[in-house]
Amino acid sequence: MLVSEFSDGTEVDQVMLVREVERRQLRHGGEYLRLHLGDRTGAIVSMVWEEMEIPQELACAGALVHVRGRYTVHPRFGPQINLRSLDEPVPGSFSLEDLIDGPVRAVELMEEEVRELLDTIQEPHLLILLRRVFGADSELWAGYRVAPAAKHYHQAYRHGLLEHCLGVAQAVSAVSATFGAVDRDVAVTGALLHDIGKLDAYTDGGGREQIIDLTDAGRLLGEIPLGYYRIRRMIEDIDGFPAELARAVEHIILSHHGSLEHGSPVVPCTREATLVHMIDNLGGRLGSFDRLEKELAPGKRWSSFDRAIGGGAFFPERGRQGTEGTEPAEQVRKAA
Q1: Contact (Cβ atoms closer than 8 angstroms) between residue 180 and residue 127
Q2: pLDDT tens digit string along 272-327?
Q3: CATH number of the 101-290 domain
C-alpha cells in the first residue's frame, strides 16, 4: 500500500524508507527520535520514544525498515504513524520502485526530447559542446541522466536533473521566440548546462543508503563553481571555440541563481542569463508544489509552511472544502 493511499486507522505492516531522522529532547529530560517514513508518494512523521529499542542501523536516513503500527490523522498534529515496531526488512518483500521517488515521465521519453532539442541548435561550436555532454556514448551523459536536481526542495530523486534541465531548456526555447533579441542557441545551451555542477556536488541516491547528499566537493566548492570549471575545461578542448560565445555560456552557469546571496558569484547581466535564471527559478518552485502535493494526506488541500515557496501550498482539486487552513503543529509528548 502506498503512503498516498493510507486513510485514518490504516494498519501499517510493510517496508518503508527512512527519509530523515531527528534526535530531540523531551521537555523534562531524555530524548526521542522523530522519523520521516515514506515511499515514492510521500512521507509521514513518526515518533520513537525512549522505551522503544531500535538497532542503530535502522534509525538512520536511507535505511529500509519493516514498519508495524497504525496510521492516524490527528485533528491537531496531522498525519502520523503510531509505531509498534521497526525491524530489518525481509529480502524480496518490497520493491525499490515503490519506495524511491522519481520523475512522472519515462526517462526514455526525456532522453528522446533532449536529442530533439539538440537537433535545433544551429551554432556549430555549441552543438559540439552539447554532443560531448549528451552524446549516447558520453561518460557525462551516463551520470547526467541519473543525477538528482536537488537534495530536498525539487526533483530530489534519480533522473531529477534530466527532468529539471530539460523542462527549463524547453521553456527557454519557447520563450526565446517571443523575445527576438535573445540568442536562442546560447540560452538553450545554458539551460541544459546550468546545473551540470550537480554531477559532482551530489550523490545520485543509487547506493545502499538510497539518500541524496552533498559530496565533499559539493560542500567545499559548491555546485556553481564545479559546473563552471567542468564546462570551461570542455570548451578549451574544442578547437576554435569563440571566446565571446564561451563567456556567454559560462556567464549563464555562474549567474543562474540570480543573486550573490543565493550563491551566484555574479548576477545575470545578459538577456540569455536573465531568461535562464527566471525559468530555472520558476521550474524549481513548481517542482516544490509537486513535492508538497505528494506528501499531503488524502483529502487534504493545504500543505504546512514550506521554505521553498515561502508559505503553504493550496491544491483546490483535492477536495470540495478546504478545512485544513492552519499549519499543523508538531506533537511533543510530555515526559512522565
Answers
A1: no
A2: 999 999 999 998 888 888 878 877 766 788 988 888 888 999 998 876 544 444 44
A3: 1.10.3210
